[in-house]
Amino acid sequence: MSAAVITLETQTDQSHKLIIHPPSIGLSLQGCIRVPGDKSISHRALMLGAIAQGETQIEGLLLGEDPRSTASCFQAMGAQISQLNTELVRVQGIGLGQLQEPIDVLNAGNSGTTLRLMLGLLASHPGRFFTVTGDSSLRSRPMSRVVQPLQQMGAQIWGRKGNSLAPLAIQGQTLKPIHYYSPIASAQVKSCLLLAGLFTPGETTITEPALSRDHSERMLRAFGAQLTIDPDTNSVTLNGLAQLHGQKVIVPGDISSAAFWLVAGAIVPDSELVIQNVGVNPTRTGILEALALMGADIQLENQREVAGEPVADLRVRSSALKSCTIGGDIIPRMIDEIPILAVAAVFATGTTIIRDAAELRVKESDRITVMAQQLNKMGAKVNELPDGMEITGGTPLVGTDLDSYTDHRIAMSLAIASLVANGITTIHRAEAAAISYPDFTATLTKVVC
Ligand code: S3P
Question: Is the C or the N end of the chain the one with fewer CB within 10 Å?
């Protein structure tokens, strides 16, 4: 057995070049790994902790750049947050409606979840003025999906391009409750409005066309919010003005990070990986269903419930993959895993079709265009569709120069593809992985043998 050579080089502009040279034969992946804490749950734990009364303790927080952005925004508004670590983070909450007006611009960095969820809270703080921004990727992402329903609630928000792009300025108001029928299945939209509803008298209802991740609903309930869920109509109603109380939150491993190892273990021959302590909330497990359709050998072991979220250990063994067709309601349950699913499809027999995933075009990058371009550079056959991709598997990949486009999930997806390419792959701007998975390269180095 001979291992791949994996090196990370820091460039003069501080960006990183990840260079992967797999051996021509004999590479396999073996071992037992833990992935970092779930990004969505980490954001919500910090935010609810900040606006609850009393102390919130968070175990297993993701120490990636995105939750760090959330922590610094809420510290700037008066929450006390102990040093960030995975063992135990303590948040001293300031109570409902008590966020202080920050003396500077709140910067959400690369994090759409930070900016969109926070907007709901800021818009509902009467008498305070806030300005929010983010990095160049976030400043180009659509904010009208939250600004418009917040305006229907009476929010005052200003920004470029008809108030649709950050930087945004917010004059907090007492809002009025609405029933919002969201045109897209988006947990960020739903959560933004639920958070706005917290400090709004009356019932705020959100109905989505398909169910998006429900971490906000679960955690809001645990913190004491009054919430009713109608699963038949994908609706959630929050009764405003209930005080939240600090809780102990245990953050499970992120299935979106585990997905890289699930696909790696499936496509690298003679591999077996166990990924421990992964969140398997049914609103997130679309990737397990899609990989099962493709014939992947993945077992869920030791299934349990931890602090209100289902958790399991996932065992993957390599197997021959076949194509699949996915679209519809499964897409919101695996939206962040589609770049790595595209990599699996490149190694599957037949043509995989992914539809109804136009949302990918407004993520940290245009993930349809970028994945198609980068995989095609390696010799894959990927056609862009307006709302997805058509991927014909079975052509061998060749290592080449690739770019992450500063998108964490693109950087990691390409790294997994390069394990099964002939020759050397160089991924530019690979430091993006630290947004959600700071130890990605270390873990990659550990599992190759
Ligand atoms: C997230 C929701 C998803 C997802 C994002 C995190 C969240 O976005 O893509 O990475 O934590 O609510 P949308 O809800 O906009 O689809």
Answer: N
Task: Indicate the CATH number for domain 39-250.
Answer: 3.65.10.10
Residue in the block written with tokens 């992402």: 141
pLDDT, mean over the chain? 97
CA neighbor of 185 nearest in space, from 160, 206, 201: 206
Task: Reply yes or no on whether 297 is catalytic.
Answer: no
Mutate to test the pocket of ligand 1, among 48, 335, 410 (most ligand atoms within 8 A of CB): 335
Q: Which CATH superfamily is domain 6-37+252-447 in?
A: Enolpyruvate transferase domain (3.65.10.10)
With vertex at residue 144, the alpha carbon angle to CA 138 and CA 145, rounded to the nearest 5 degrees, is: 95
Say how far apart CA 241 and CA 243 lie, in whole Å: 6
Q: Choose among 394, 414, 388: nearest CA to 348.
A: 394
Q: Average pLDDT for residues 393-408, to the nearest whole number?
A: 98
Ordered by start, the domain boundaries in the chain are: 6-37+252-447, 39-250
Q: Is 141 annotated as a binding residue?
A: yes
pLDDT at 128 exceeding the cut of 60: yes
* Residue 326, CA distances (Å) to 9, 97, 290, 321 in order: 37, 42, 7, 15
Whether residue 112 is annotated as binding a ligand: the answer is yes
Asked if 269 and 300 touch (Cβ cutoff 8 Å), the reply is: no
